[in-house]
Structures are given as structure tokens and as C-alpha cells.
Design a protein that fits this description.
- This protein is mostly beta strands.
- The protein is 3% helix and 38% strand.
- The strands form 9 sheets. Strands 1, 4, 5, 9, 10, 13, 14, 17, 18, 21 and 24 form an 11-stranded parallel β-sheet that branches. Strands 2-6-11-15-19-22-25-26 form an 8-stranded parallel β-sheet, with no helix packed on it. A 4-stranded antiparallel β-sheet has the order 31-32-36-35.
- It is elongated and about 80 Å long.
- The two termini are 38 Å apart.
Length: 420
């Protein structure tokens, strides 16, 4: 068998790792310095010996011989292991270095034996993580063998196993403020065993990792502990990483500020600013389902998310067009095409309203053009800022007379995307 990759020290930032082919796991072994990964998507590791996805011996990351690791702002999805630790397997207990996971998600990972998401024979600190839709024979999400787990501000929900569906193992006294299905672990660490109300639950059978953002009304909102001890094992473990501080909790995995209201939320995602916008617009008795991204409570055929995008009111039917006076926005509304005359020239342009928080929300606005309402082309021009108010920008972009296929431009639309 080919020797697995061995690293002494590695730091990965702002990357995606998807569908890698490997003979075993991504492996850290005999590390002189701790392993640190930041903002990584680790997805679907594949056994190189076969053309189909097969479980490897251990999951996406495997460490032993005392190697330490800091895993920050990462997502582990659909990884599998033949034995233990579908996403991560940590072995070797004696003189083990510090091991920590902060602001991470684990969904739809599996192991044939123990620890659908993670197996460890070591002390481990997990802070603001979300484990959902993972499975194993024992310890659907986590299997803690010889060490102790400091679990803080985290969600374990919808994981499955023949026994210990959420967690097998013992908790360190520093554990606090978690949401665990069925309250499966003992102690005051459990704040709630109610449904966390993810935007969409994982479904491993359909290879759907779900959308693990919180919905309005989730019991995981504003119940975290912002001053958790990230160094809970360090006094007894001089080998631990020194790079993590409380600043690693300043943003969630999506880059949003961690405290949106009174205190930190549970799990890897803070409640989106979208929900702070929509909640005051409806009576307190409104069902949470009516406040979701794609709901249309006012019946005007425009979903809440598009109403937010274009400055409309989701509580009142209003599918009118925006109004502008030159470069000034008079009233928000749907995009328009207008004629811009400059001396003897005339140019068609598209004007649209853009929410000023679109980047922090993970939105993008793309102008698309067509000659037949069937074939659409993204505009290559950059939109210009005409004016702004406290919440929205009025944007404009020129419309070319012909398209890349040499057909004539006749239609335009705005494509609004929200990244999961």
C-alpha cells in the first residue's frame, strides 16, 4: 500500500477540498508542530483503488503518534470510514497533543463502527460546532474513547447509531451550553433537546448535506456562552497549539459577526441578519415557516428573500417597479430598464436595488441578458453605484445591443443567488 501523506506542519486557508482520491486518509503523523486548518470544505474522500466511493480505513483526517491539530471554520461532508471516525480519527492517547475544533460543521459522514463524524482516543475541545446527519454503529456523531470532551456552544442533532446516537464518551467539567437531541448526555451542559430548526435537515440517503443555518425561532439562538475557555486542557498539555484565542469566535463559519443580538448562538452558524430584518415586520404569533427564505406570506409571488434583496415589504403585497429621479432612488421596487440620454447619444441601462448587507449575507446579484427568454448570458459589465441610503444601493449597468451569440439583446433580468 502506498504510504499516506505525512506532514510536519500545514496551514490551509480559504480553500475547498472536494472528491479527493486517496489510498487512506489525509494524515498528520509524528508532527513536530501542530496541524492547523482554516476555512476548508472537506468533502467525499474516495478510495483510489476503486472507481466508486468506498469507505477508507479512517475518514478525511487521521492523526496519531501524539500529533496535535486545530480545525477552525471547516466543513466535513459525506466522508466515510471502514472502521472509526467518518470525518476525523484521532488515535494514540499517551502524551497526546492538544486537539481542538472551532466553528465547524459535520454532516452526512459515516463510519461502519464508531464515531460517524469523529473518533478520538485523546482529550478534545469542541466549540460552536454543528453535527447533523452523521451515522455509525456506535456514537452517531462522536465517539470519545479514553479521553474527555470539552463540548461548548454546540449542536448534536439528527445523528444515528445502533447505540449512543449523538455521543459516546465522558464530558470535561468545562463543558457548557449545548443542544443535544434527546438530552442524551448527562449534566448541566444541555440547554435544550428541542429541534434546532435548521433551514434544511441533512438527508444522507439522497446525499443532501442540508443547510445548517438556524431559522427564526430556533432554541439555539442567543443561548451560548461567548467567554468559553478555549484553552481548557492547555495547562496540562504543553504540546498544544498556541494560535487560537477568543478572537476565533468573532465570526461564524459563514463570516457573519458572531453576536447579532444579545449573545452568541449555538452551532457553527449565527442567525442571519435576514431574520432580524423580517421578524419585526410580522406579529409575534406568526408561524416561523412564514418567515423563511422562500415563503411568500403576502401572496404577491415574491418570496421573502427577494423582497429583502430589492427593498420590498414582505408583509404587504407590492410587486411594483422601483422609481428613480435621475440618480436618486425615490422608492424601492423591482428592477427596470430605462433609456439614459447624454447629449446626442442614447443608451439602455438596467437599474436595480441592492441590499447593502448582501456580501455579509452571502448574496450575489448578476445581470443576465437574452434575445429569446431561453438562452441567458451573464453581463460582463460592472454595475455602477448611483446613490445609497441607510439600507440599499441604487445600481445601474449598461445593456449591450448584441449578445455573445451575435443575437440582439431584447430582455434583461437580475439573478439573485444565496450561497448555502
Amino acid at each position: 500500500m502506498e504510504e499516506p501523506f505525512i506532514c510536519l506542519m500545514i496551514q490551509i486557508s480559504n480553500c475547498s477540498i472536494a472528491s479527493l482520491k486517496t489510498t487512506e486518509s489525509w494524515m498528520t503523523k509524528d508532527a513536530e508542530e501542530p496541524f492547523t486548518a482554516k476555512r476548508v470544505l472537506i468533502l467525499s474522500f474516495i478510495n483510489a483503488a476503486s472507481k466508486v466511493i468506498q469507505p477508507v480505513m479512517e475518514g478525511a483526517i487521521y492523526t496519531n503518534d501524539g500529533a496535535g491539530a486545530s480545525i477552525l471554520l471547516c466543513s466535513f461532508t459525506e466522508n466515510s470510514a471502514r472502521y472509526d471516525g467518518g470525518a476525523m480519527c484521532r488515535e494514540y492517547y499517551i502524551d497526546s497533543r492538544f486537539y481542538e475544533i472551532i466553528n465547524c460543521t459535520f454532516s452526512s459522514n459515516s463510519a461502519n463502527e464508531r464515531g460517524g463524524a469523529l473518533f478520538t482516543i485523546s482529550n478534545l475541545t469542541i466549540t460552536n460546532a454543528t453535527f447533523a446527519g452523521n451515522s455509525a454503529s456506535q456514537g452517531g456523531a462522536l465517539y470519545i474513547d479514553w479521553g474527555e470532551l470539552s463540548l461548548n456552544n454546540s449542536i448534536l442533532w439528527g445523528n444515528n447509531a445502533d447505540s449512543d446516537s449523538q455521543l459516546y464518551g465522558s464530558l470535561h467539567d468545562s463543558s457548557t451550553n449545548n443542544l443535544v437531541e434527546d438530552g442524551e448526555i448527562d449534566g448541566n451542559t444541555i440547554l435544550s433537546n428541542s429541534d434546532p430548526l435548521f433551514v434544511r435537515n441533512p438527508n444522507p440517503e439522497t446525499r443532501d448535506p442540508g443547510i445548517l443555518h438556524l431559522q427564526f425561532g430556533s432554541p439555539a439562538i442567543d443561548v451560548g456562552e461567548p467567554d468559553v475557555d478555549l484553552d481548557s486542557y492547555r495547562p496540562d498539555n504543553p504540546f498544544g497549539p498556541e494560535s487560537t484565542t477568543i478572537e476565533d469566535l468573532s465570526t461564524d463559519i459563514g463570516g457573519h459577526p458572531r453576536i447579532q443580538d444579545s449573545t452568541i448562538d449555538l452551532g457553527a452558524y449565527e442567525l442571519e441578519p435576514f431574520y432580524f430584518w423580517i421578524e419585526p415586520l410580522f406579529p409575534p404569533s406568526t408561524e416561523a415557516s412564514q418567515l423563511g427564505h422562500w415563503a411568500d406570506p403576502d401572496g404577491d409571488t415574491i418570496g421573502n428573500l427577494l423582497e429583502w434583496s430589492f427593498g420590498l415589504d414582505p408583509a404587504k403585497p407590492n410587486n411594483f417597479l422601483l422609481m428613480q429621479d435621475g440618480t436618486t432612488l425615490q422608492s424601492a421596487g423591482l428592477p427596470i430598464i430605462y433609456s439614459d440620454r447624454d447629449n446626442s447619444t442614447e443608451e439602455l441601462k438596467v437599474a436595480f436595488v441592492r441590499n447593502r448587507n448582501f456580501e455579509s449575507m452571502g448574496f450575489s446579484y448578476t445581470v443576465q441578458l437574452s434575445s429569446n427568454l431561453k438562452d441567458w448570458f451573464d453581463s460582463s459589465a460592472e454595475p455602477s453605484l448611483l446613490s445609497s441610503d441607510a439600507t440599499h444601493d441604487l445600481m445601474s449597468i449598461s445593456v449591450p445591443t448584441t449578445l455573445p451569440d451575435d443575437s440582439r439583446t431584447r430582455f434583461a433580468r437580475i439573478l439573485v443567488r444565496l450561497l448555502d
